[in-house]
Amino acid sequence: MHTKKKGLRGGPLLFVLISLILIAVSGFVLLNWEGYMQKGLDLEGGVYVLLEAKSLGDAEENSDALQRAMTIISSRVDELGLVEPVIQREGERRIRIELPGIEDQAQAMEIIGRTAQLTFVSPEGELLLTGADLKKAYFSRGQYGEPIVALEFGEEGTQKFAEATEKHLHQPIAIFLDEDLVSAPTVQNVIENGHAMITGIPTAEEASNIALLLRSGALPVELNELETRSVGPLLGENAFKLSFSAGVVGLSLVVLYMLFSYAFAGLISVISLTVYLALVFAILFWFGATMTLPGIAGLILSIGMAVDANIIVFERIKEELRRGRTTLTAINAGFEKAFRAIIDSNVTTIIAGVVLFIVASGSIRGFAIVLLVGILASLFTAFFLTRFLLRLAARSQMIKTPRYLGLKEVTLSDKV
C-alpha cells in the first residue's frame, strides 16, 4: 500500500505569491532603469577629450601632478552642470575626459584648459599671496590628532606671509582657487618661519582635498590636447535603440526556448532571469556605474552565461530522473552535480574579466565590469533563487510528472 505524501500546506499559493513579487519588483527596476542609471558618451552624445601632461620629473612627481590636474579639471567640469562626467587617468601621463550631454567643444575646452589661480586675500579684499608663493601643502594631524592642512612657503612667500599675519592678526585670510573659496582660516599668531596650519577642518577627507587643491594651484600642470571630438546625440540614440532592440529579440528567443525545452522548469528559469537582470542593474547603480555600448555587450554576454547555468542544472536533473530518483531528490542531486561544472566554466571568464579590468581602460573596462557583475549575479540566481523555487514547487507537489522538468520520454519512474 502506497501513501501519498502531502505537499507543503499553501505551497502553490506561496510559490505564486513569491513569483509575482519577484517579477513585479524586477520589472519595475528594469522598466525604469533610465531614470536612475546614467548613459555613457556613446549613448548620450557629448564631447570626448584626451589630454597629456608634460613630464615633470620622476614617476612619483608625475603621478602627483597628474592627480592634481584631474582635481582641477573635475572642479571646472562641475560648472557645466553635467550629470555624469567621466574623468579618468590613462597610463602614466594621460587624462581621458567624457562629457555626456554637451555639444560645444569650444566651451568644454575653455573650462577644462583654464589655469587654476591660487590667491590669499585679506578681509578687505587685498591680494596678499598667490600660488607661486606656496611651496608645499599636505594633509597632517595636529597636537590632538585633529585633521589639519600644513602649508610651507618659499623664501619670498615666507616674507609676504609674515607681513600678512602680522597685519591681520586674529582676522581671517581667505584662500581662493580661481573664484572658489577653499578655506578662510583665522590668523592666531604671527608666522615668520613660512610654516602654517589650517585648523578647524571637520574630517581627514576634507583636509586631504583642501591640501590637494592648494597643491594644484601652487603647481599648475601643463596639458597638451591630443584629441577632441564630438559624439552626436543622434548617433548615440540610434546605437542605443539598435542595441536595445537586439537585446529584446535575443531575450525573447531565449525565453521561448527555455519554455519549450524545460516546461515548468523553464518558467522558473525565466523568473530567475528577470530577477538576474534587475539585480545586475541594481548593483551597477549602487556602484555608480555608467551604461555604455560595451557595457550592454557585456550584459548580453552574461545573460547567455546565466541561461547556460540553468540549462546545465536542468540537464543534470533530467539525468537523475532517468535513474529513477524522485523529483525533489533529483533536483537536489542535479544542483550538486552541476555546481562544479558551472563554477569551472565561469571561473575562466571571471579571470579574463579581471585581467581586462586591470590592463584595459575606458569602455573596455566598462565591458569587464558589467561582465563580472553579470557572472556573479547569474551564479547567485542559478544556485539560490532557481533552486529555491524548484524545491518549493516540488514540495508543494506543483511538479506532477518529470515532464514538468522537460523530460519528454516516458519512464517507469514517472513519479514525484
Task: Characterize this entry briefly.
The protein has 416 residues and is an alpha+beta fold. It is built from eleven helices and 13 strands.
List keywords for this structure.
416 residues, alpha+beta, Multidrug efflux transporter AcrB transmembrane fold, Alpha-Beta Plaits, Gyrase A, domain 2, 3 domains, 4-stranded antiparallel beta sheet, 16% strand, elongated, disordered N terminus, disordered C terminus
Structure description:
The chain has 3 domains: 204 residues, Multidrug efflux transporter AcrB transmembrane fold (Up-down Bundle), CATH 1.20.1640.10; 78 residues, Alpha-Beta Plaits; 101 residues, 2-Layer Sandwich (Gyrase A, domain 2), CATH 3.30.1360. 56% of the residues lie in helices and 16% in strands. The chain has 11 helices and 13 strands. It has a 4-stranded antiparallel sheet. A 4-stranded antiparallel sheet has the order 6-5-9-10. A hairpin with a 5-residue loop joins strand 5 and strand 6. It is elongated. The chain starts with 10 loop residues before the first helix and ends in a 21-residue tail after the last helix.
CATH superfamily of the largest domain: Multidrug efflux transporter AcrB transmembrane domain
Number of strands: 13
**What is the H/E order?**
HHEHEHEEHEEEEHEEEHEHEHHH
Number of helices: 11
Q: Give me the CATH fold name of the largest domain.
A: Multidrug efflux transporter AcrB transmembrane fold
CATH class of the largest domain: Mainly Alpha
Query: Uncertain runs with pLDDT below 50, 5 residues or more?
Result: 1-6, 410-416
Q: Spatial order of the strands in the main sheet?
A: 3-4-2-12
Oligomer: single chain
Which bin fits the share of residues in helices?
55-70%
N→C terminal distance: 16 Å
Average per-residue pLDDT, rounded, comes to 80
Sheet bearing the most strands, described?
4 strands, antiparallel
Approximate shape: elongated
Number of domains: 3
The rounded Rg comes to 30 Å
Q: Structural class from helices and strands?
A: alpha+beta
Percentage of residues in DSSP E strands? 15-25%
CATH architecture of the largest domain: Up-down Bundle
